[in-house]
Amino acid sequence: PAAKTISLAGRAFEISWRISPEDRAWDDFLLTLPDAPHEQTSRWGCVRATIGWEVVRIVMTEHGVIIAGAQIQLQALGGFGSWAYLTGGPCLAGDDATAEKILLAEIKDFLRHQRVIYLLAQLPYDAHPLAERLQANGFVRPPRAIAPFYMSATLVLDLAKPEETLLAEMRATTRHQIRQGLKRGLTVVESGAADLDLFWELMRKLCERRHTTPNPGSPEFFHQLWKQFAPRGWIKLFLVQHEGKTIAGGLALVFGDWFRVWKVGWSGEHAELRPNQLLWWEMIRAARNQGYRHFDFVNLDVAQPGQPSAQKIALDGSTEFKLGFGGSIKPLPGAYCCFIHPLARMAKRTGIVRLLDTEACVTLVRKVRRQR
Q1: What is the C-alpha separation between 275 and 270, in angstroms, rounded?
Q2: Of 260, 264, 244, nearest to 252 (Cα)?
Q3: Interior CA angle at 252 toward 248 and 256, to 5°?
Q4: How far apart are CA 39 and CA 43, in angstroms?
Q5: How far apart are CA 179 and CA 296, in angstroms?
Q6: Which of 9, 145, 168, 289 is the most buried (most CB within 10 A)?
Q7: One-character DSSP codes across 120-153
Q8: What is the pTM of this model?
Q9: Phi, psi of 254 (to 5 degrees)
């Protein structure tokens, strides 16, 4: 749709929908936000477009300045229409109830015209007040068949602290293991695009031992991501080497004040040398030295809301490992779902949508996704 002006409460807002591959003004706006969601950048949208998503963004300006918006991904559901995915958004510059009201109404109106059945929104880190207002606006926690997983908590280190303080706030065992790695000849280097295939193979081997499927499913996504993010310095690759051989690695997405460890990999070799403890510590040091304020471990295993033991930390191996580095557990608002199509809304009202939470339906959806 063409750009339009909406007046409310004595203010005038310009609303536009954009499909341009790169939108530097929008990306620069995101950099000003406290939680700086990289998934909302136009460059992330460019990467997602290479794997079959249609990417659009709504941008709201006032007096020529961007104050709010959202980047939305659309994917077809056979002949039934499509579904919409909003991750890391919607995005607003401050607590602006008027802008928020207009933004949500415009998103719903646009999606109705696009024959979208439902919208799944993974909210920004600090959007807890927004989550409450979304529930009053018809949003609900998504059924498991729609969103089998979403982040409910993460672990964050305050990089304003001196290195000595960060070390002192770790568990003694983690601190000892880092020193073991340093003494036993391991080195951690920052690498580049030429090692992305090698890193993906390390990630694949780690997933194999965990009996999970690597995501992304091929190194091509990493190459597309590097192509888009590297020109603006938003991606970093760290590798652990032992006697000339790479045995572990971490891929970080860095945006605004945030250094987020997005993917990790490990061949499984030389566990006695503590390569993973040293890898994470050297990434923490690099993030601090390069001026980032927050080191994000990206996801702790907690029970999803609505399931038993909600908000309790599940001490699996990965979560236990991360907690050894200290930091603060940050509860997240998580995901919400809005049924857009009239038939979908009717299914929600009549309770039919609850079938999407049954184990049989979840299993069927997983099988269909694997066949795609």
Answers
A1: 7
A2: 260
A3: 160
A4: 9
A5: 22
A6: 145
A7: EEE--TT-HHHHHHHHHTT-BPPPTTT-S----E
A8: 0.90
A9: -120, 130
